[in-house]
Fold these 2 entries.
Entry 1:
Amino acid sequence: MRQPPSQALPVSSGLGLDSSAVRARMVGKLAEQGVQDAWVLQAMGRVERHRFVETALAGQAYEDTSLPIGLGQTISKPNVVARMIELLRQDAPGKLGRVLEIGTGCGYQAAVLSHVATEVYSIERLRGLHEKAKKNLLPFRLPNVHLILGDGMLGFPKGAPYAGIISAAGGEDVPVAWLDQLAVGGRLVAPTVTASGQQALVVIHKTATGFDRQVLEAVHFVPLKSGVA
Ligand code: SAH
């Protein structure tokens, strides 16, 4: 696999001068936990997660824990973010092409994705979080991240076809619109309720002849809901 261009870690603010050291430790743990994709590890090392949570929670930003982001929603654990993006990028020789993220939330995962994909379309159904993500992402100046307020269950046809679709919210099944908007060769990674009634990570690979579906480990994501609120 081609290595990502090496870039200096950004100097931080908010957590003191050593936030890049704290992040480097988090990246070390992710590697120990089995994350291997150098692009993913580097992106996780670059994005300052503490800037996406309330000040009172900033001290926990680099622990492997999910954190509240308001309106009853949560930012996923770093390990889950890294794992899902690694699955999304499976077999990609370099940067992924266009990616669709369902559930922008606070914008953290969109920022990570911006370093491993050429374009990121991220859709959120809650206006309050869409606005929060816009504010959070502004200082990062990521011109390849496009935030959309809308119902992600319909996908976002304007950016299709996507090399990858990643959902941060779990439904009963994967909406047909996502399968339609996936490019041939592309992958979809989403928490989905499986036959056992529990939520698991599902990876769908679109091939020239159909879809390969893999059901992986159990996960706990917020529910996928329809409509804008
Ligand atoms: N990736 C986010 C995680 C947010 S939690 C981050 O890094 O912070 C999942 C998000 O999915 C919530 O904000 C929730 O409002 C949103 N969501 C649920 N159903 C949705 C839908 N149909 N369309 C768009 N967003 C949805």
Entry 2:
Amino acid sequence: MKILIKNIGQLINCSETAPVYRRGGEMKTLPLIENAWLAIENGLIADFGEMKDWPGISDWSKLEIIDAEGGFVLPAWCDSHTHTVFAATREGEFLDRLKGLTYQEIAEKGGGILNSANKLSLMSEDELYEQAYARLDKLKELGTGAIEIKSGYGLTVDAELKMLRVIKRLKENHPITIKATFLGAHAFPLEYKKNHRGYIDSIINEMIPVIKEEGLADFIDCFCETGYFSPEEMTEILQAGIEVGLTPKVHVNQFTSIGGIQAALNSQALSVDHLEVMTEEDISLVAKSECAAVGLPSCSFFLGIPYAPMRALIDEGAIGVLASDYNPGSTPNGNMNLVLAMGCIKQKMLPEESINAITTNGAYAMHLSKELGSITPEKIANVIITKPMESLAYLPYSFGENMISQVILNGKISEEIS
Ligand code: NIG
Ligand code: FE
């Protein structure tokens, strides 16, 4: 099957060869062609060029032709941090916060992650799968073409494995490219509050061996935070994951800076995520490293906490990434178009930087640089076609307006969206 998209206003982030990531000042670079065409064949990007060099096609009948009518074409969004598998929404806690409680106070009362874990323990694998599949369908319409999904609402051997098996089935069946992260170290279950050793032993000796055996995860995560896992506890858990081939990607510095960044870098983490509370030293350590700096602006928006200092991180040279953190507690929304806009509006990133952060660099933060993240020959044909617009800046500027008209994943065209 061949698809030819013509009359593209701007073909964004297209290049014959693609960088693994763009860091610091490079993030302002976003190669583009105005008035372009794009050819897709057998699910992959085949070729592109300017309309004035429209390819001579002898046999039009074998082609599906899409007229973009001046709309822009971009690589589909790469969302490198989500908790898309969950059993129930938590708007009750949202009301509690509106009445004055903080996220941490709700968690201390047994709400938060433990609330989600209770609900998840009661739900069947099939139902979790159906619900998560439906969420992914919605995200696909919003332009997400690759996503990372974490466990972490299980917190028992059985329930963590149940979550990871759901993610594995989603991987096998959903058109979005999916990566799985084991987040058994998301919170200490109540019965282990005073016995951290017991829960960490269960992660290392009971969960990780089965994850290895069944090939259930690509990455290992840990919520390193006051009241959750200490940097030392995180280091031990990540090390056990590394030994079975899992790459660390971690939650650090959401509420406090307790040495999580340094510990994550020592464990060769692929990304450090959240970063709402950063010291000067934290910023410069991440900025100089190969570890992606992942900001989650919709979490900051929803909880009313500081935004990750993406401007300072990028100015110091970081590999800047933005992701949704889609989850029922701190970010009940996986819309990457809003994330793109918030990167600009709240974190002072330029549209080019924000787009690099959710395409090229988002793919890097999921070990998907070879396959996705840019419009490059031989990469998977995951692209977004927008409604006609005058400039790239219109995307973040028109925050909340859905500018997507069509999404193509794996070279397959979705129904026209509006
Ligand atoms: O990334 N901070 C830790 N984990 C999630 C929220 C989990 C929850 O509240 O359910 C996050 O924000
Ligand atoms: Fe998260």
